[in-house]
TrEMBL record:
Pfam families according to UniProt: TPR_1 (PF00515), TPR_16 (PF13432), TPR_2 (PF07719)
Native organism: Daeguia caeni
SUPFAM superfamilies: TPR-like (SSF48452)
Protein known as: Tetratricopeptide repeat protein
Coiled coil regions in record: none
InterPro entries according to UniProt: TPR-like_helical_dom_sf (IPR011990), TPR_2 (IPR013105), TPR_rpt (IPR019734), Ycf3 (IPR050498)
Keyword Cell membrane: no
Placement of TPR repeats on the sequence: 68-101, 102-135, 136-169, 170-203, 204-237, 238-271
This protein's record includes keyword Repeat: yes
Record's keyword terms, sorted: Repeat, TPR repeat
Length: 283
């Protein structure tokens, strides 16, 4: 059983200070600031990080302590539980038992990224790719580290490589779409977000991403549909409500906009676009 640790982070979609009469230029400026890192593109099974599951995996390891897969799987569970030092320890042991265990390198890389150690994350993803040049997960993971560091050309190269390998992982298209969006290439971004949706229709993030590119193209109706779908899929993402509010605000429906901004603030009191929008529309 070969496991990846956690479906990689995607992004928060951020909106700037936009009035009721929104120009395309202002929207593009808002979208240029929409890159962030705090929501997952693919749902994580938190049950796999429970103490009960970790205890069961420990029993498996105790019965076969020379099997690197046991350490890899338990390391994944530790990672899901946020117990990063223990996760690193298990991945270290898995790699010590099997130096060519490329999945363990990629899993350890993701934990390093969560710990803020981008250099080690890149090193481990690169080692996984060196061992298995066909491993699309490592290209996607390394590409996201590059993207978050602002190294967009390198990120784009990695996402392109994963796509050339015919990946079925929607993160490759979603993250490439974010780069296109940042560069103002909104039609290409929409195509990539749409592909990501076709691969994982239950993830709200590509709907938010595509919706913002529709806004940049002044296609408010399609944007509204996407933001509403994102909310239907997960009602606990502040960005989705703030994005919906932006459309209401554009339409002059200030009361509805204020309600949606208020919901976003309730979910994330520190989310500035929602706080600013609520201040604009509350009166």
């Amino acid at each position: 059983m070969k496991q990846s640790l956690i479906a990689d982070h995607a992004t928060k979609n951020r909106i700037g200070r936009i009035g009721i009469l929104v120009s395309t230029a202002l929207v593009c400026m808002a979208i240029a600031g929409c890159q962030s890192t705090n929501t997952a593109l693919t749902t994580v099974d938190r049950a796999q990080g429970t103490s009960e599951n970790i205890s069961s995996l420990t029993q498996v390891i105790q019965s076969n302590p020379r099997d690197p897969e046991g350490y890899n799987v338990r390391g994944s569970a530790y990672g899901r539980a946020g117990r990063y030092k223990e996760a690193i320890r298990d991945f270290d042991q898995a790699i010590a038992l099997n130096p060519n265990f490329y999945q363990a390198y990629a899993n350890r890389a993701l934990v390093y990224r969560y710990m803020g150690d981008s250099n080690r994350a890149v090193q481990d993803y690169s080692r996984a790719i060196q061992i298995n040049p066909q491993y699309d997960t490592a290209y996607i993971g390394r590409g996201n580290v590059y993207r978050l560091a602002g190294r967009h050309d390198q990120a784009l190269n990695d996402f392109n490589q994963a796509i050339a390998l015919q990946t079925t992982d929607g993160r490759a298209y979603h993250n490439r779409g974010l780069i296109y969006q940042l560069r103002g290439q909104h039609q290409q971004a929409i195509e990539d977000f749409s592909k990501a949706i076709s691969l994982n229709s239950t993830a709200p993030e590509p709907y938010n991403g595509r919706g913002l590119s529709y806004v940049a193209l002044n296609d408010w109706d399609n944007a509204f549909d996407d933001f509403n779908t994102a909310i239907t899929l997960n009602q606990n993402i502040a960005e989705s409500w703030a994005n919906q509010a932006l459309v209401y605000e554009h339409r002059g429906e200030k009361a509805k906009a204020a309600n949606s901004y208020a919901r976003a603030v309730q979910l994330d009191p520190n989310y500035k676009p929602a706080k600013d929008g609520l201040a604009r529309t509350r009166g």
